[in-house]
Amino acid sequence: MHIAGSPDRLQQLRDLTFANTKDPTALSNELATLQATPLPASASAQSFAQWLHTEEVQTLLSDLRKSQPSSYDVLLRETKMWMSRGFRKSTRSRVAAWLVPMALLLLAGVGVWMIASNAAVALTYSQWRFTKGNASAKEHFRAQEYLLGRIGQAAQNANGRDEIAKIISPLALKLPSRKFRRGRRKTFWP
Predict the structure, then answer these.
(1) Which of 9, 43, 87, 132 sits at a 20 to 30 Å CA gap from 188?
(2) Cβ(147)–Cβ(167) under 8 Å?
(3) pLDDT by residue (tens digit) across 60-91?
(4) Which of 54-63, 104-113, 157-166 has the highest mean pLDDT?
(5) In a shared domain, residues 13 and 78
């Protein structure tokens, strides 16, 4: 339960803070000034009281933090005022800590699978890999095998010439001519 919503826990926090404060007079004056704040005309008494309790908790925690900077959290945990384990180690936060990354990984995997299983994307990728200048022999072989398989499937169809043209025409545009290759690499191609 929230400290401001429980009168017993609020009193417990007051006692803890006054026991550890370096300037009890200043803290008393600050709390008295807060309690003397008039009720605004636009606010209900219940919401104003809740606001006062919340502000008092903030004031007490701030003073405790200033008075005991290295051990205020330990003091709060020892008196069971601060339930840090309640959020960090609760089942809900553990589930969320595992569920969110797993959901993101699942979405990324589904996205990659959808893109990779698309035949048009696979064809474009293989054409790019086949014409890539710095592709390794293994990559070039895989792309060649895929493209030859697609050409073989297209040859069995009734409108195979059009499909084969769609597969080969981007390759013909990207590959340099024989004359260019012969002059650049100084090889003896027939």
Answers:
(1) 132
(2) yes
(3) 888 888 888 777 677 777 776 665 445 445 66
(4) 104-113
(5) yes
